[in-house]
Design a protein that fits this description.
alpha/beta, 7-stranded parallel beta sheet, 8 helices, 7 strands
Length: 268
């Protein structure tokens, strides 16, 4: 089964650096038309260069929390490539939380960015995919696919990551609920829950903290931090026909980290 995306059009958010950028580039290499989306125009231009009409790469600058930006993104993608077949919700934030501070707004902020923004974009894209299917009289195995980027924080508990953990768990449930709702339309929805991947933010965090990097690697059975391209390859599998009978799944990509019991000595 081929991982080719020739003839497909993908939207990838959070695509100016790190994981989103790696996914977008791999999709483009696999033959897809790709709309890279981010709020950082300078970073997009630096990574992708000038846009040209004959390229399979475009970029869109905007804040997807704004509903008008979502509508403009879909219009820009249709104008450039005529259709939308793949959505990767890669834009996500990580914030530390004071779990005992009632004025801490991190839960609301991360729920808006990591959950509601992804849900709204998925809904708009799914409706477009449904119209495309109806107009084309499509009867194939997959009318489209949506991929959410989540985290193993949804299943692990850390007092300083309350907001991120709650948002990640909610996004996993969004994945399952949308998968069920969209299955009759042959639109697949899956999620990648990852552990430590060398994203731009992780790289910055670990740059001057060798002890933290060693700790993360020690708590990962495979003994290392993943490269963004490794997550991108999983996304490519989910976007391709190789996963045509898979929907509603949360795939764990963490080097075995969630297999560990943090208690050093068993007491049961």
């Amino acid at each position: 089964m081929s991982f080719s995306l020739v003839g497909k059009t993908a939207i990838v958010t959070g695509a100016s650096t790190g994981i989103g950028l790696a996914i977008g580039k791999l999709f483009a290499d696999a033959g897809a038309n790709v709309m890279f989306v981010d709020s950082d125009e300078q970073a997009l231009k630096q990574e992708l260069g000038d846009q040209s009409d004959d390229s399979n790469i475009r970029y869109f600058v905007g804040d997807m929390r704004e509903r008008l930006c979502v509508a403009n993104l879909l219009s820009a993608t249709i104008d450039a490539f005529d259709e939308i077949d793949i959505l990767v919700n890669g834009a996500r934030d990580v914030m530390m939380t004071d779990a005992l501070d009632s004025s801490d707004e991190s839960v609301a902020q991360l729920f808006e960015q990591n959950v509601l923004t992804s849900l709204r974009l998925a809904q708009h894209v799914a409706n477009r995919m449904i119209r495309q299917k109806e107009e084309a009289g499509y009867e194939g195995h997959s009318a489209g696919t949506i991929i959410n980027l989540s985290s193993i924080a949804a299943r692990r508990t850390h007092p300083d990551l309350l907001a991120y953990s709650v948002a990640s768990a909610a996004l996993d449930q969004v994945t399952r609920s949308l998968a069920l709702a969209l299955a009759p339309h042959q639109i697949r929805v899956n999620s990648i829950a990852f552990g430590s991947v060398m994203s731009a933010s992780v790289r910055a965090t670990l740059k001057d903290n060798k002890e933290l990097r060693t700790e993360v690697e020690d708590y990962t059975p495979l003994g290392r931090i993943a490269a963004p391209t490794e997550l991108a390859e999983t996304a490519l599998f989910l976007a391709s026909e190789a996963s045509s009978f898979m929907t509603g799944e949360v795939i764990t990509l963490d080097g075995g980290r969630t297999l560990l019991d943090s208690v050093s000595e068993p007491v049961y």
